[in-house]
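ugh ok so i messed up the first submission bc i forgot one of the chains. this is the corrected input, ALL of the components this time, i swear. 877 residues overall. if the numbers dont match what u have on ur side tell me asap before i send this to the collaborators (the ones from the other lab, u know who)
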Amino acid sequence: MQAETVIDVRNLSKVYRDFWGRKKVQALNALELNVRKGEVFGLLGPNGSGKTTTLKLLLGLLFPTEGEVTVLGKPAHDVTKNERIGYLPEESYLYRFLNADETLDFYGRLFDMPASVRKERRDELIKLVKIEGARRRPLKEYSKGMTRRIGLAQALINDPELVLLDEPTSGLDPLGTRDMKDLIIRLKEQGKTVVMCSHLLADVQDVCDRIAILYGGELKVMGGVKDLLESQDETQLLTSTLNDEAIKEVEAVLKKHGAQLKQVAHPTSTLEELFLRTVKESQERPGRRFSPGERPGQSDSRPAQAAVKS
Amino acid sequence: MFEANPYNLGWAILQWVAALAVSGILALLVGFVISYLALGKKAPAAIKDTLKRGFDDLTKLSGRRIGALAYLALKESLARRALYVLGTFIVLFMAANLFLRTPEQDVPAKPYVSFVLTVVQWLLIPVALLLSCWGLPADIKDRSLHTVVTKPVRRSEIVIGRMLGYGLMTTMVLVVVALFGWVWIKRVVPARSQAQLISRVPVFSSADDVKDAFFFIDRAGNRQQFAVNVGDIWDHRSFIEGQTNSRAVWQFENLNPSRIGDDLRIEYRFEAFRSHKGNVDEGEGVRFRLFFVNEAKKLRVPFPQTGAGVEIREFTQETVRGATAGTEEEQAVLRIPRELRAEVAGDPSATGEKVDLFTDVMDNGKLQVEVVCLDAGQYVGAARTDLFIRLPDRPFAASYFKAMFGIWLMVLLVIMIGTTASTFLKGPVATLLTFGLVILGSPLRSYMEEQYTDRYQKGEVLGGGMLESAYRLVTQMNQQSPLPENFGTKTIQVLDEGVFSGLAIVRNVIPDFRHFNMTEYVANGFDVPFNDAGAAVLPSIMTVLGFFIPCVILGYFSLQLRELESK
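and heres the new structure output, hopefully the right one now
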């Protein structure tokens, strides 16, 4: 059964005009997309491709030049839909003279939440985004990463059904990025719908179920991440380390089956994984220092990787 | 500004409804034209949808959200150092101490009181302007507002929340400066002038038709609106001639004896005009006598009952005019006992029957007071407000804090206009617009009213309208000379008529800030009236309420119909 549609965009166009009404930029052109309930949807594209404009049209911050936008079954300009939405803007546009507690309390009041619920939710979120130690400091004293964290907390204050994240990992260190991605996955597990736009492709690949790629305000690609990235005419095998003789034998077997061995290599980890491992080890063994020749955190028995073209 | 006439609440409400309806229809027409140009045939549906949304957004408000937004505005004001104004206030007062106090300690209370109220007013207006005109534009520029509008917040709540927050901030400041000013006045006003710190409560003559409240009887016994003109350019007062039938008549209504007290106190400010000067050293006194009259009972009760009448000592009294120091005689107050004897018709020297002023002469709260001049060849000049009944005085605090209440209402109005302007203008422009309205509604309002009255009530403006005046200036033509009959003159007059019509319209829309300025009452030792067409409590409240609704509607639509994120 097809999942319920949470966002439905039809023939959406947006033209930015100057003071005299002359066309300045065609930010979006006849965009058609839909987001289903419970999925993590990624909006990709280079700078100026229309990702943020799309999000702002979904939120009613901009008015469409043409087309229709329905969010949670309501038109984009209907403010009551916002009761079920959380939004993290690209930059965390918050009030710098408020501290974290005041900020969350303020946004909680905008959702008409009673004081006891606000307090409970505030404590929960401050713990979630790990800023307990800075909750009474004004936001003007926060680093960019901390500002992103409190920005995320305000987006989740109402326990939203639909979360819109604009460049969610921007300004975060790798630890923060990992936390953010874990959080997105956790939100998905809770049955929430997440729409994120980013140009950090690795982040999107890690968490998104479906993506849409925009270029010049037009939709170029849309579909499941797995479907779009999987290469059906190649096979990848992962084994423990093989010696040269074993590799030759494997090659022979492959030839017998009409396939060709294209590459034999040791798989590399990602820099993110290395960084996270190093930080974790440093936290577990605080006094330890780097010594020349050491490869921190790397496993001694790494598997060999072979790419086979059939 | 004091009118001595009650504020016409019914007419004000009617005018408000009409102005709102006309503005609404005009806005709808303009909106329709713009929508039609942008959307074509979809325009009616778009307008219907906008109006429906507008109705919901303006009626389904959340107190908690408005409270949150007000709290935010309050915190923002504190962050923007709005409380620094208190420091400025204290410094100004310390400086004033140096200039107002003299070694003789003989300064009346008036300058102290005027100083405090004027400083509070002109310190709070810039604060209100800066807070209300710059808050929203800064919020839009920093995009903090964008995060707010992604919550279920109605734009009307943003407008109201801002107004409320800035209002709270200025209220806090006003309470502090008002109390500080109060203590300062009490401490620095010289001991001799402390008695001037009271609130006199005057009751002026009144009638359904103001022409019945005060008029003259000429020497032939005919009723007139004006008496003799003794050559003053200022025709505020008319003069009655001594030892003739001439008299000035005041008719009071709705008097309540229980509020008056044991004796009737009447305060007067007459002007004497002497056609002969008498002894240069002693001066020539001009005397008058009061008569309390009940026409139905044919009662005329003189006061003073016998003797030479009351001498006008305008120069002695001039020195304490508006103040209340010294004896009642110095204050030009006549204390009239309830029990008096009526005049015997035809024999002024005879003693008539005993009458009670409140029960026999007063008729259903109505009292007629007449003044006659006793000296032949001399004249007594009087105007309606030159004689009033003085109810028991109230403490100075009554008028002082009412005046502060007036300033508070004025600051609220400035905040409402400033916040509304800031929804569609940037900070500096919104400030200019709001300040311009304050100036137009306060010092320039009287000029505007004069032009309007001359054109639409008297039928002619001396020197013509804007273009005609410019023409006369350039051609060095005086105001009375007729213009040449030609096409240019007609064009000028038609264009001027357009300007006057515009004036007639904006006059109904620009707030009358003069209602809020109650300084003169307090400084001159009068209580601030609740209901007067000039500066008073009721018109001040009604002006603020009257502007609140249109300001919220205008602010809402200008925030709702603009793209906050537009590049």
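quick check: Chain A touches chain B through 34 residues (CB under 8 Å). that seems consistent at least. Chain A has two domains: 5-229, 234-291+301-309.
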